[in-house]
Design a protein that fits this description.
The chain contains seven helices and eight strands; from the N terminus they run ββααβββαβααααββ. It is α+β, with helices and mostly antiparallel strands. About 10% of the residues are buried. The protein has a domain of about 60 residues: Winged helix-like DNA-binding domain superfamily/Winged helix DNA-binding domain (Arc Repressor Mutant, subunit A, Orthogonal Bundle). The longest helix is centred in the N-terminal third of the chain and has 20 residues. β3 and β4 form a beta hairpin. The chain is extended and about 75 Å long. α6 crosses α7. One of its GO terms (molecular function) is DNA binding.
C-alpha cells in the first residue's frame, strides 16, 4: 500500500495570470475514525477494545489538563504539543492584558524518531485519475461496491464494517445491510462477534 499525492498549481500571489509551478500535495484516501483506529490496534495487539478506549480517553484527558496547566506535552514517541495563542498586536507590553489573550489552537512538533520511522515506511504514488473524481460525488451501485470489496479482499485477508464504509462511502447502516446481503448471496462469510466481526470471501 502507498499514500497518494497529486500535483497542484502554486497560488499566483503576484496576480500575473501566467501558469504557476506545480507542487506535490498529500491526498488522503479518507478519514480513519477513532473506532476503526482502535479496531486496528486491537487486531494487531490483542488488547481489548474497552481497555484501548479507556486508555485513549485517559491520554486525551491528561493531555488537555496538562496543556491547560501550562506544559508542553511529549505524547509518546509521536512528538510534542504546545498551545498557540491569539492576541492583538501591541507596541508596548503594558497595552496587553491577560484577558485579551486566548487559545488559537495547538502546535505540534513531530519527534525525530517518529519522522525517521514514518519516512522509512511511507511510499507515494500519483493519485489514479478515477480516484480524482471522488466517490462522494456519486452513489456507487451495489455491483460497484462488490467489485471494490473483491479487489480489497484480494489484497487483505478480511474487512470490517468500518473499512467497508470507508471503501464504498456507505453509511454504517447501509454497510451492515449490504454486507449481510453479500453473506446471504454466498459472497462473504462472517467471523467473530460484536466489535470483532470481520468478513472474508465466502
Amino acid at each position: 500500500m502507498s499514500a497518494y499525492y497529486d500535483l497542484f498549481e502554486s497560488p499566483d500571489v503576484q496576480h500575473t495570470g501566467e501558469p504557476q509551478p506545480l507542487y506535490a500535495r498529500f491526498v488522503p484516501k479518507g478519514t480513519m475514525g477513532q473506532e476503526e483506529f482502535i479496531d486496528r490496534v486491537h487486531r494487531f495487539t490483542g488488547i481489548s477494545h474497552s481497555l484501548l478506549q479507556g486508555a485513549m480517553k485517559a491520554f486525551t484527558d491528561e493531555l488537555r489538563d496538562s496543556l491547560a496547566n501550562g506544559w508542553t506535552v511529549e505524547f509518546g514517541e509521536l512528538g510534542y504539543f504546545t498551545p498557540s495563542l491569539n492576541s492583538r498586536r501591541v507596541m508596548d507590553k503594558k497595552e496587553l492584558r491577560s484577558t485579551s489573550v486566548s487559545l488559537r489552537g495547538l502546535n505540534f512538533r513531530l519527534s525525530k524518531q517518529f519522522f525517521r520511522e514514518l519516512n522509512g515506511k511511507i511510499s507515494f504514488e500519483r493519485r489514479p485519475a478515477q480516484e480524482a473524481s471522488s466517490n462522494a460525488s456519486r452513489v456507487l451501485s451495489k455491483a460497484e461496491c462488490l467489485r471494490l470489496l473483491q479487489e480489497y479482499l484480494q489484497k487483505y485477508p478480511c474487512i470490517n464494517r468500518a473499512q467497508y464504509s470507508q471503501l464504498t462511502g456507505r453509511s454504517r447502516k447501509q454497510a451492515i445491510v449490504e454486507l449481510n446481503d453479500f453473506i446471504l448471496e454466498g459472497v462473504l462469510a462472517k467471523h467473530g462477534m460484536g466489535k470483532t466481526v470481520v468478513y472474508i470471501m465466502g
